[in-house]
Design goal:
Blueprint: H1 3-14, H2 31-43, H3 49-75, H4 81-91, H5 94-104, H6 111-114, H7 117-145, H8 152-160, H9 164-188, H10 190-196, H11 201-227, H12 233-239, H13 242-247, H14 260-265
Helix pairs in contact: 1-3, 3-4, 3-5, 7-9, 7-11, 8-9
Length: about 270
Amino acid sequence: MTVQGAECGFNARLSAFMPLDNSTPPVATNPVEKGLADIWSRTAGPMSSTARTEFRRAIQDMTDSWVWELANQTQNRIPDPIDYIEMRRKTFGSDLTMSLSRLSQGGEIPMQIYYSRPMRSLENAAADFACFTNDIFSYQKEIEFEGEIHNCVLVVQNFLNCDLLKAVEIVNNLMTARAQQFQHIVETELPALFDDFNLDKNTREKLLKYIEKLEQWMCGVLKWHTKVDRYKEFELRNSASPIVRLLNGPTGFGTSAAHIRSLVGATNSVI
């Protein structure tokens, strides 16, 4: 069996440890299955049938997307921008995060509202903003130190055959555009959505609270990336394996590769 085949089989078994009817899952064969069975019973157990189904779908979409990443890694294939952006929302776990927030709002908001075009557009804009943020800040870590190929900056470089500075500028502009689209939808499309579904005051307030949580999530993702040491060069070099340190050459002032932070600072951006 190939590595990819083994991963597919591993991923396929995960659904059995997220039973929709609260039945007893099979015997776990590894720590992931054991941990998933434990956290599923405690998290999804109290949920309604509809909420449990929605929650499991979000998890399955995320883990399925990781298998897609593995296939690209195996083929050394950098995805095209359309495929990448659509799948990045899943690999980042965006819908999983949003589903938890949706479920916390209770059952007053019908699921068809979340499935409406304005809400899907709103969530996609928030997800893309968060994903692009991560890709800009993590570029050096993923490309220089880890050999990763799933990064929007690299995808743009490969697709447009441009240099790093231009690719960062493009992705940064995409971030800004998605934030602006989010604001535009809130200001112009939500009032019509409220009227189309004839939402009462309580439901409107809950939906606005959910949207506020999306805004906080976007701000939180950006804030976290600007504050942590995870993507700073000194941390990357200190935590790299001896082989990676050797391949990356000398360290110290004047010896580093292009710094993403300085590149971002050269653009007109929300960062």
